[in-house]
Amino acid sequence: DFNEGPEVQSLVEFLQRIAAITGRVQWSDDVRGRYDEWIRSHESGFEQEHVNEQLIGYWSRMSTYCGKFAALCQLALDQNLVVSDEALSQAIKIIEFLKARLVELFKEMSFDKDGQRLADVKAAIKRYGTAEHTVLLRELRMFKGDLDKVLLTLVESGEIRQEFERRPGRPKRLYTVAEE
Predict the structure, then answer these.
(1) Residue 75 and residue 70: Cα distance in Å, rounded?
(2) H or E element: which one contains 132?
(3) 69 with 94: CB under 8 angstroms?
């Protein structure tokens, strides 16, 4: 059972007043110009941020959501249908937060085969603290050439460090995860 205390009742009454408002949302030229500028930046950001292609649909609708959030923020501020700069700023903050979380979520969830290999190798190195090349070959059951490509990518990206331990014969290759 939901407790309908005074705070809940006050919120319900406030939302009912907002729901009763009718008319068209309006934008001043300045606010509309700022919104259009944000849309251009948002749309160009898709390619610049290397966003997963599965997000194209959501990403393209974010500008519409921003406009709707701006109207809702304005209604929450003063029950007015003319969107202010403050309401637009709040809406942009909401959308930028959602965009950042979506990108983060998809980076964590949607690895292609190469991305998964990078994550697996880095996780194995992290488990060992310092991992020998031969140990990684055995544990990960990868071909030497494939492992070497992944290790090179991780070293060049700065995610892991490679060191050589001198010993008779071949030097031992050791890998550690870089400080984050």
Answers:
(1) 9
(2) strand 130-132
(3) yes
Contacts of 103 (CB under 8 A, 6+ apart): 49, 51, 52, 55
Q: What is the largest CA-CA distance in the chain?
A: 84
Q: pLDDT (tens digit, 9 = 90+) per residue, 69-97?
A: 999 999 999 999 999 999 999 999 999 99
The pLDDT score that the predictor gives to residue 3 is 67
Which tens digits make up the pLDDT trace of 9-34? 888 899 999 999 999 999 999 999 99
Between CA 157 and CA 85 the distance in angstroms is: 41
Phi, psi of 164 (to 5 degrees): -115, 130
- Integer Cα distance of 62 and 47 in angstroms: 15
R_g over Cα of the chain:
26
- The model carries a pTM of 0.57
Q: Would you put residue 173 in left (φ > 0), alpha (ψ -120 to 50) or beta?
A: beta
Question: H/E element holding 174?
Answer: strand 172-177
pLDDT confidence band for 52 (50 / 70 / 90): low
